[in-house]
Amino acid sequence: MPQTFQIRREGMTVELLLHQAYGVEGRSLLEETLRKNPGLSSLGTILPLGTVLTIPDKPAANAAFFKPVVSLFGN
After folding, report:
1. Using CA atoms, how far apart are residues 20 and 55, in angstroms rounded to an integer?
2. Tens of pLDDT along 46-71?
3. Is the pTM of this model over 0.85?
4. For every residue of 19-42, which 3-state class applies, written as one string?
5. How many Å separate Cα 68 from the centre of its chain?
6. Cα distances (angstroms) measured from residue 61 to each of 15, 25, 64
């Protein structure tokens, strides 16, 4: 379920809010957050106090993700 936040401290950015909410995985939600909040990007990098925005749910862990291991010595 998406969460709604109101900016209550100076120096807050969308990236920082996503990082505080979801950790490193929050980085992948920047584009979706900007889509969910039309006009948010026009406010600038530092969000003004009182800005209300909605962030999407945390991305699900992809159990099927596989990263091949490269070996210098063959199999």
Report:
1. 12
2. 999 999 999 999 877 665 566 677 77
3. no
4. HHHHHHHHHHHHHHHHHHCCCHHH
5. 26
6. 20, 9, 9
